[in-house]
Specification:
single chain; 37 strands; 419 residues; mainly beta
């Protein structure tokens, strides 16, 4: 009989042949979590982590995962932790059972049940915070608490499901906040949005069913379905595909955004996009081939995966050069694209780039829809440091990408034009 390990190794080789460029991997285990059955992972900053899972797994680290402290107990009424969140200095846990949400006001020192207004036995998938408001995404609806869990209100259940609790559920899977809006990806009815100031869902669609994960970068809304990744066009129910470099099947799928970079995990790989989804690079993860990934978190220093057999981490420098937009984006073939200055800008900005050797380059600017709005330079260029100026007079405000291409590889950088 062919082992599962062999079959998954063959699958990874086949996927590598059809996916985008592959980055070398530098994965390492997170100490103290070996063999733990992890369901959720939370980073409140670059050093403070929380991890939850089965059999009473609930721990905190304040030294970037070097050591862990058990924070299960002291009022916690479930030994199965499904989701973790934070808002206003409070810590929230979604559990499996009647008391679906618990809250701690002292970083896990003690816990109280905080499910007033929630559907009894709600299966919690995710928490999302926006200021002092925290949202719960559950199997049958989305709930908001502007009082940090003192009580909850269901977010426009009729707008998403029709009659309340009729059984015609959209099945929410993921929520994200951005642009003054709350977005929700649902398995059966596409994506919904509502103003944060007045909850009323509007269905903005998706080209395919199975919307499972959603993320927001600036004004750009991304959704991952079972087969594709899309970005919202900003109008009606029109979405644009952003799947170049991804396999044809994405299940299960986790999608995260950090500092303008997209990170995606599916059952067959880990992928990174630095150009708002226009292209994806594959991250090698041979060490993880036998572990199902349940959670992914990105900080400015690293990406951490929580699996059914422990946690794995990889330095951010192995994936991208910068996640805050202030450092150069470069590839190892000797081209570097530096951050423009000023940024944001109106209407002109200077872009610096470097070449380790003489060659032909092309510098262009595209919008979020992938349409080219300017060609800044095309032709031979000597080795060294160079600059080019983009005059965006007449171009609408928004997020744009500057792309540097030398015919072998490319680098991308985000620019913000504000009128």
């Amino acid at each position: 009989m062919i082992s599962n390990m062999f079959k998954r190794s063959v699958l990874s080789l086949l996927l590598a042949a059809v996916a985008g460029p592959q980055l070398s991997a530098q994965w390492s285990t997170v100490p103290g979590l070996e063999y733990a059955f992890i369901t959720c992972f939370l980073a409140t900053n670059d050093s403070t982590f929380y991890v939850g899972g089965h059999q009473g797994l609930l721990r905190r680290s304040t030294d970037r995962g070097a050591t862990w402290q058990n924070i299960w107990g002291n009022g916690m009424q479930s030994d199965t932790i499904m989701a973790l969140g934070s808002a206003g200095g409070y810590l929230f846990v979604g559990t499996y059972g009647v008391n679906s949400v618990s809250r701690s006001t002292n970083q896990g020192g003690s816990w109280t049940v905080a499910n007033a207004g929630l559907l009894p036995g709600l299966l919690v998938y995710q928490f999302e915070e926006s200021g002092d408001t925290i949202f719960v995404c559950g199997a049958t609806g989305v709930y908001a608490s502007p009082h940090l869990g003192d009580n909850w209100q269901e977010v426009d259940i009729v707008g998403m499901n029709g009659q309340p609790h009729s059984g015609n559920f959209a099945h929410p899977r993921s929520v994200a906040v951005g642009n003054g809006q709350l977005y929700c990806a649902t398995e059966y009815k596409g994506v919904f949005s509502t103003l944060r100031s007045a909850y009323a869902w509007t269905n903005i669609g998706t080209p395919s069913t199975g919307a499972s994960a959603i993320a927001v970068i600036d004004t750009n809304v991304f959704v991952a379905t079972y087969t594709r990744v899309y970005v919202y066009s900003g109008s009606g129910t029109a979405w644009l595909e952003r799947s170049t470099g991804l396999p044809d099947y994405l299940y299960p799928v986790i999608l995260k955004a950090m500092g303008g970079v997209l990170f995606l995990y599916s059952g067959n790989g880990i992928y990174v996009s630095e150009d708002l989804g226009l292209s994806w690079k594959t991250v090698g993860f041979d060490a993880l081939m036998t572990s199902l990934v349940n959670s992914m978190v990105a900080t400015s220093k690293e990406v951490i995966l929580g699996t059914i057999g422990g946690a794995w981490r990889i330095p951010m420098t192995s994936l991208v050069t910068s996640v805050d937009g202030n450092e150069p984006s470069h590839l190892p073939d000797g081209i570097e694209l530096m951050q423009n200055h000023p940024n944001p800008f109106n209407p002109t900005t200077t872009i610096e780039y470097r070449m380790s050797q003489e060659g032909t380059v092309r510098i262009s600017v595209v919008d979020i829809l992938g349409r080219e709005v300017a060609e800044l330079f095309k032709g031979p260029m000597s080795a060294g440091r160079h600059t080019v100026v983009w005059d965006a007079t007449g171009v609408p405000s928004g997020t744009y990408l500057c792309r540097l291409d030398n015919g072998v590889s490319s680098a991308a950088m985000k620019l913000m034009l504000l009128r």
